[in-house]
UniProtKB/TrEMBL annotation, chain A:
Xref: Pfam families: BPD_transp_1 (PF00528)
InterPro entries according to UniProt: ABC_transporter_permease (IPR051393), MetI-like (IPR000515), MetI-like_sf (IPR035906)
Domain of life of the organism encoding this protein: Bacteria
PROSITE patterns named among the record's database cross-references: ABC_TM1 (PS50928)
Topology term for the membrane: Multi-pass membrane protein
Organism the protein comes from: Streptomyces edwardsiae
Keywords: Cell membrane, Membrane, Transmembrane, Transmembrane helix, Transport
Cellular compartment(s): Cell membrane
Family: Belongs to the binding-protein-dependent transport system permease family.
Name listed for the protein in its UniProt record: Sugar ABC transporter permease
PANTHER family: ABC TRANSPORTER PERMEASE PROTEIN, INNER MEMBRANE ABC TRANSPORTER PERMEASE PROTEIN YCJO
Matches recorded under Gene3D superfamilies: MetI-like (1.10.3720.10)
Spans through the membrane: 25-48, 81-106, 118-139, 174-199, 230-249, 280-300
UniProtKB/TrEMBL annotation, chain B:
Transmembrane segments: none
Pfam family, one: SBP_bac_1
Signal peptide per UniProt: none
CDD domains cross-referenced by the UniProt entry: PBP2_TMBP_like
Protein name in the entry: Sugar ABC transporter substrate-binding protein
Source organism (scientific name): Streptomyces edwardsiae
Amino acid sequence: MPTTTTRQVSAPARSRRGLRARSTLAFWLFTGPFLIGLLIFVYVPILWSAWLSFFEARFTVTPSDFVGFENYRTMLTDEDFMGSLVTFTVFAVIIVPTTWALSLALALAVNRLRFMRAFFRSVFFLPTAVSYVAASLIWKMSIFNGVRFGLANTVLGWFGADGTAWLASPDPPWYWLVIVTVRLWLQAGFYMILFLAALQNIPPELYEAAAIDGARPGWQTFRYITLPQLRATSTAVILLLLVAAYQAFDEFFNLLSKTTWGRPPLVELYYKALGENQDYGAGSAGALILTLLICLVTLLQGRIMGFGRAEGSK
Amino acid sequence: MPDSGNSSWDRRSALRAALGLAAAGGLAACGGNNGRGGGGSGSGTSLVQYFHAYGEAGTEQAIKRYAKAYEDANVSTQWITGSNFESKLFASLLTDKAPDVFEFHPQIQLVKSGQVADLTELIDPVKDDFNPADIQSHTVDGKIYGVRMIDDPQFFFYRKSLFDKAGVGIPRTLDELVAAAAELTTDKVKGIYLGNTLHSIVNPLIWASGAETLDENNEIAYHTDGVVGGFRTLRTLFTSGDLLLDAPTDFWDPSALNQGLTAIQWCGMWAMPQMQQALGDDLGIFPFPKVTDAGRQTVYNGGWSMFVNAKGKNVEAAKEYVKWLWIDRKEYQEDWALSYGFHIPPRTSLAESADKLKSGLPAEGVRLFNEFGHFDNIGWTQAMITALEDVLANCVRKGGDPEAELGKADGKVNRELDKLFG
């Protein structure tokens, strides 16, 4: 990218100090509000939660009864919490590849359009602005309700199939279909935009050169030119999808009520910390275990997929 | 494309993605609504009251109207929507935004932790005018901790025409109920509806099996062969295809019955006016049938009560308000019980003068309430309720073994009982 490299040759000696002071001020002006928000809403709660996790903190967030690693032992031997990690794994294994594939497919399709591209881009992106709660209610009450006039059951009825209770019964686990489709609908459009930006950044010369070398358009160019060029974006998308999957709460909470199954970690922790026991100590310990897990997985993924590493240094 | 350019592009694309996600997250989070209406301009103390969202039209306006008529304090109402009123209430009670006055059910952990104020002196002068069961269910060691606002019997509602068409009589046992559901099911109508999660029939099932939640020594009394058998029967109903599942509205809403999705529905008397309006005379009621021969027909006498937050900033003012509205102002109590849904007033004088409850189906509801009703046991707390709801989820919806699941629940309930009664 030649434009960025030339810009760095700059700054004549004239009044260098004044310039620097002004740019320092500008730096804090721009980042200050964001940093303050980050401090208050992210770092303080994390530290507070870390502190709470070493205390017996029922019905209070200012505990005095130090218990060491007791809360961690409770959580790590808690069947429900460990089960929630399994639930999460199942969820991530389904949702990450499907969203990746669907958003890439949408991006490729929209990128090929010759007209109305902006329209379709907006249409596919719009669901991102819908709240998870509202979408869950639509899925639960109109699309996947269990009565004969629910959308899914109506469609099944055309083929003579009986109505299905999608959410009430865990066997067969149809609730996964509901949960996965709602999230796909909500987030695929956003990742499509990321892919679209990356697609448009692939230099056309590459395709021209490939065509001259005899590569057939379609699968061959996609496999050997498009996909490798999207590696950085793909890695970022997968990472973001994984983190988003870890944070899944709204659709599980709203679609599955009074169940003992289908609870990802955050839902489990919600019931643990904010349920009738109000056990903030154990809840915080669980949250920290979860944070550590996310860090670990992210680092591992970076290692495996070479996140942020230069293409040439491989 | 030089190599040096690539690495900066990598990082930048990742950063752009992350910022984009943050921005999208912010966008999606818009539209929050904290429910705090603008405080009025009244002088003096201000009080906050919590109510769960009643389904009947006009209830929210009614509660706010009563509050506005109170002159000694500025009372603002939080109308809590959603299905988890108890967790929102419990969480808020820990904070300095806690309500001064809230509605809930009698549960002893609130008394033991000093969360609810002793209201004996408010109620004592009119104690004889209350349904004795409503006094008893709010009493711990001779002190009364809440004022009952409404009694809400829950039983089965059914469509008489569909019963006649299928040639089905009123079920006397749980087995008969399951058989009736099978007879009543057609390709358009399901036989029976117990709510999407079925949790509202846990207590009726226990009572109808001849058991209790806890005995008089506050020890487990629900773990009997009858209850185990009841859960097994419910499992057969759940898998039979005769039970309406995943309906758009839950058991407390009359829509499933009104819209012809089911022939029988477990619901509360609050919904009776709406059902009568939709179905006219094609409506009957019956109690939860016996589960075993030793069991009994059962009606769940639920309801809501007013409590004063003993840890609030204005305990005395809150008590005054509760006394004013729920002890003194009988016209409001009557309006609240009878103008929206049907509820039985816990005040005997009001219940006796309530013309709307004197004839027809409402009178039948009152009879079931008196004859078969079981009230809440104050020792049966939220943690125990949740433990039994888990049993239902695991063995009726998931197909686990009731004996083993009840055993697991025993552990949780005993832990809670130890904490409460030592």
